[in-house]
Amino acid sequence: MTILSLLAFAGLCLLLSVTPGPDTFLVLRIALGRASAGVAAAAGSAAASVAWAALVGVGLAAIVEQSAEVFRWVKIAGGIYLVYLGVSSFLKTRKAAKAGLAEGPEAPAPERPYSRWAGFAAGALSTLLNPKVGLFYLAVVPQFIPHGGNTLATAMVLGVLEAAIAFAYLAAVAAVAYKAMKWLRRPKVKTGLERASSGIITALGVGVMVSGAAS
């Protein structure tokens, strides 16, 4: 895995991180009561993301060991999934823009502030119970595995990198919860971020399918 590959993956993770999603709104909600608890929630989410990367890496390693042909179809299926994510996200953004609405759940202040441990547990549980995180790794990791490379090691490197980027962003959001909330809810900001990430995901999905079909 080259430095350019890591930079490409990091860029994708950054785009996905700044697009408001369940983890963003969970951290915002918790941080409104206590900023440090919001940072702890970000850490919990990052830790759970690494756990997903490990699980996916073990599964992919088993597939590679058993059948190269099956692994090729896993890559193609992953590409199709990424294209679906990108296109569906773009269509939802257009629909929301036409309706004049900014999508995303509300994040009211909690009645009681979370403790740091409670925030960490909430962030970890939210990510662990989100199968889309596992599907994301399942779709992306195969593209970055070099021929004859270590599947599990590659998955863990990518998982740690994604977790670090996500934590840095979510921790920053927690530190400026009130201002970040107002900014992220602006329709133009949210629409621009979602369209950019949708295009990147779709392009990556096409690349995965082409790579899988050619291998």
Give the key terms.
about 220 residues; single chain; mainly alpha; transmembrane
Describe this structure in a few short sentences.
The protein has 215 residues and is an all-alpha fold. It is built from 9 helices and no strands.
Biggest sheet overview: none
Order of helices and strands: HHHHHHHHH
β-strand percent reads under 5%
Structural class: mainly alpha
**Tally of alpha and pi helices:** 9
Q: Tally the structural domains.
A: 1
Low-confidence sequence ranges: 101-111
What value does the Rg take, in angstroms?
18 Å
Q: Estimate the global geometry from the Cα principal axes.
A: globular
Distance between the termini: 17 Å
Structure summary, number of beta strands: 0
Overall pLDDT: 75
Helix percentage range: over 70%
Subcellular location: Cell membrane
Keywords: Cell membrane, Membrane, Transmembrane, Transmembrane helix
Pfam family, one: LysE
Membrane topology: Multi-pass membrane protein
How would you describe what is shown here?
InterPro entries: LeuE-type. It is found in: Cell membrane. It is a multi-pass membrane protein. With 215 residues, the chain is mainly alpha-helical. It has one domain. The protein contains nine helices and no strands. Helix 2 runs antiparallel to helix 3, helix 2 packs antiparallel against helix 8 and helix 3 runs parallel beside helix 5. The radius of gyration is 18 Å and the shape is globular. The two termini are 17 Å apart. About 5% of the residues have low confidence.
